[in-house]
Fold this sequence. Notes:
The structure holds 3 protein chains of 3 kinds. Chain A is mainly alpha-helical. Chain A has helices at about 5-35, 40-60, 65-85, 95-115, 140-165, 165-175, 175-180, 185-210, 220-235, 240-260, 265-280, and strands spanning about 130-135, 135-140. Helix content of chain A is about 75%, strand content about 5%. In chain A, helix 1 (about 5-35) runs antiparallel to helix 8 (about 185-210) and helix 1 runs antiparallel to helix 10 (about 240-260). Chain B has a domain at about 45-250. A two-stranded antiparallel sheet of chain B has the order 1-2. The longest helix of chain B is centred in the C-terminal third of the chain and has 27 residues, at about 215-240. Chain B starts with a helix and ends in a 6-residue tail after the last helix. Chain C has 2 domains: about 30-150 and about 295-375, 3-Layer(aba) Sandwich (Rossmann fold), CATH 3.40.50.2300; about 150-290 and about 375-405, Response regulator (Rossmann fold). Chain C is built from 12 helices and 12 strands. Chain C has helices spanning about 1-30, 50-70, 85-95, 110-120, 150-170, 185-195, 220-230, 240-250, 270-275, 295-305, 315-335, 340-345; strands spanning about 35-40, 75-80, 100-105, 125-130, 145, 175-180, 205-210, 235, 260, 285-290, 375-380, 385-390. In chain C, the strands form 2 sheets. In chain C, strands 7-6-8-9-10-11-12 form a 7-stranded mixed β-sheet, with helices on both faces. A 5-stranded parallel β-sheet of chain C has the order 2-1-3-4-5, with helices on both faces. In chain C, helix 2 (about 50-70) packs across helix 10 (about 295-305), helix 2 (about 50-70) packs across helix 11 and helix 8 (about 240-250) runs parallel beside helix 9. The longest helix of chain C is centred in the first third of the chain and has 30 residues, at about 1-30. The interface of A and B includes residues 103, 106, 271 and 273 of A.
Amino acid sequence: MPIDIYLNVAVSGLLTGLVYGLMALGLSVIFGVVRVVNFAHGEMMTIAMYLAVLAFSVLGLDPLVMMVPIAAVLFVFGYALQAGLIGPFINKPEHMQFILLVAVAVILVNVQLIVFGPDARGVQTAYSYDSFAVGKLIIDATKVYAALAALTVSAALFVFFRFTEVGKAIRACADNYTGALVVGLDVRRLYALTFGIGAACVGAAGAMMVVIIDVTPSLGPAYTLLAFVIVITGGLGSMPGALLGGVLIGMTEAMAGLLFSPSAKTMFAFAILVLVLLFRPQGIMGKRAA
Amino acid sequence: MIARLIEGTSRRGLVLLALLLAFLILIPFFVNDYLITVLILIFYFAFVGQAWNIMMGFAGQLSLGHALYVGLGAYTSAALYVHFGVGPWIGMLAAIPVAGALGAVIGFLAFRFGVSGVYFAILTIAFCEFARVGFDHFRWVGGSAGFFLPVAQYSVNDLWNLRGKPSMFYYVILGFTVAAFIICHLLLRSRMGYFWQAIREDEPAARALGINAFRYKMIAVVISAGMTSLAGVFFAFFYNNLFPEQVFHISRSIEMILAPIIGGVGTLFGPILGAVILTGLSETMHEILHLLGVDVPGAKAVFYGICLLVVIVALPDGVWPWLSRRLGLSERK
Amino acid sequence: MTKSLTLTRRTLLAGAAATTSLIAAPSILRAQSGPLKVGVLLPRSGAQAGIGQDCQRGVDIAGPILKGLGYPDLQIINADTETSVDVARSRAERLISEGAQLLVGAFDSGQSTAIAQVAEQKGVPFVINIAAAPPITEQGYKFVFRNFPTAPMILGDAFANQKELFETAGLAPKSAVLLHVNDTFGTSMQQGVAGVLPKFNLSYKIVEQIAYDGTARDLSVEISKAKATNAEVLLLVSRLNDAILLTREMVKQRWSPMAVMSMGPGWYEDQYLKTLGKLGDGPISFVPWYDPNKKVSKLMVEALAKHSPEVNPNTNHVYTFEALMIAADAFKRAGSTDPKALADAIRTTNITDNVSIGSGIQFDAKGQNDKLKNAAIQNRGGKLVTVAPKVASDAKADLPMTAYDKR
């Protein structure tokens, strides 16, 4: 095989990894703070993807323009979900949270099936098929945009959590739940806010993803699992970790696909996950649990 | 042994239990094959639910990858049958150590390296997905093209080779479920059962009391995995075809833990009651939607999801703890 | 408290009554004559929802056409298998207990096998509309019939048609790469290639076989790998969503092989054409198809245009429709709804006035229709034209394919 294919696949894997990271950011935010296993993560993203498809087909609005409005819609959805349904389960055992969110996921998938039908829906923008050629290197343009979006969203999250009062308060809740209660923080509201912010990330990611992949109702569960793999590899609750985890998984899959059989590439992703769990359970960028 | 079994159970409970068993033994004579199939599904889920419950409900280790053990049991027994002509009952003797060994490997890695809680759950998913893709490439058992068991005579019940009518499969799975119930009952009352519960409630405290947590958690995983693999043998011979994409799919792992959680984690009757409720609910919904003339794909699943949500919000500990209080049957947890 | 208790009792009683009717129902229904009750099982929700719902269109349009052809009435009872073998099996039992005298379904090999066992046990004929895994008709079933080609049959016709196409176009490609999805169908096809290909003496050699995961979210490395082989022909076995993803990757990675040849679903489907627009033109699919020149085909195409104007007729409609045609034909000849008589009638089926390509519908001793022929269809201008075999074609193939960057 010529050497340039390795370069092409490596660059593609890197970009795909950043796209994966963008997709998983929201999960990291929620799990990192609220400590709830959001098993409806992928399903929430397909909501955002359908919204982007609708905005494009009905109003002719470009998905990139819709990123912020869709994030806002998902924020409201996430806030309401946490405040109304998940809140009482915060201190319950994991398996109860799990069933709760599985039920939410089942409902979301099938409502989407009824409303939008089973067929794949996508958007065709002017730049959908663009690629940049640099010598022998061919770079997928939409993935570059998505990678930029991933970096932007994580930078925004970083600024928010580091420099705003609310962001600091949320981090306080994550670091020390009881302590946060003691100093009089409104933990319930902050949790709902966090869930909303996580959902907003999912919304932004969904609007971006729809340019890269078509949406079907059954896409949700697949993305939930992928997001878990990425976030745990990278380190729960760490924004750079989610991106790094995405890149690691993306690169692993791409290289495994190139060197072995592409049909077995997810096996390598899970192998990475197992190794990380065993040797660095807090994830590559995660802090050691207190 | 019998004395130990019934000790601590109220007379009323015993009478009800005996009546229930008699009812279940007689029921195939009165209903059609459709209802028998539904009953088979109920007891299938009750059985795997009980097996899962040993690990989660008794010892507190959340597994979200139990489809792995079902799949291993199914493929082991099917491969023995197809390639070597070895019948399912001997296949079970092979399936149990295979699944138990892998359970031991996973448990060893997880408990040695201190992987617990959600991380442990994700680890079990990872192994199950690993197996799914692995079996997709395992040509000796068909790979992703599927593995088919030869199907022969149906009119005659051949219990030795598990070939026959639904009613035969019903008695087999009913037998499994009753046996699992007795085993769970004995385990829960044993010294080990108390150790498990101590570990489940507070592992550091249990350790401080001198309980070898690692050892007892390992035993729980191995027993649970071995028992689950029996369901796999049943699955293989009931459906006669195996596809890695179906057998090891994460949705199957999720499906099989719904019943014990809805019924009541850590209880003896929970998994059985949960299976009755969920499978019954699913079939009833078909009937209701059919009667209403609603033929919208997905509608059933939406209502199913809503019911799941309502139950878990109203009774987060499961239905059985609540029901047993209402019926005045106390079950020692 | 007392009130709620009586309420529960009453509900229980009502439930018990309903159950009794469930139990008693079949014997009453069995005795009835009148229209044949056909239970149709399709995966209309779950992972295969799209295909299941598409097959359902073939069911929806069948009634009036069959009536027009002089066949007796069928009473259709629909059931959704939810893309699950458990549900497929229990729904099949339910349909039979509801009085279904014949079953049709279920697109997927696993679900079809589960249903086949129920049908066999109950002695109720089961006509498989679509499912290509060879073992299904190798089991010695007596009540199971398949009017769909097996993987080796599809491959044989595909290679014969490819040879014809390349010769007509005056092309002799030297190399091909096979990209196939690693699922039941994809693997059955891949396993068949080694045995079938040498018989056809084609100009190309398969230089590499690449298996990929049909549920993968990203297929860029798959195309990079295929492109790196520099093969002139891209052979494919895919599904729908991955077909769309693969095409996008080909465009983005600027790879246009001489011919894109698919031996399975995906590349001709409406969703593919609609999503990709002019980039969807060009691929040739070698599939079990309808003969556009047959009379019933025209009726079916017309009825479908009225039922779903946005949908092009395809394999799903053809074979689901034909499964019902087989049922109606057997019912007509048997003159009874007795399942045994129906099965005997199906065994002697000889329908020549049908939809699919080939001499007609007949079953061999194993219950397999071995008379089926496949077509080569090409996407052109958002529509489908049949380009081979010559006897059933309505256009000439565009070969080599117009490069993606020249459109």
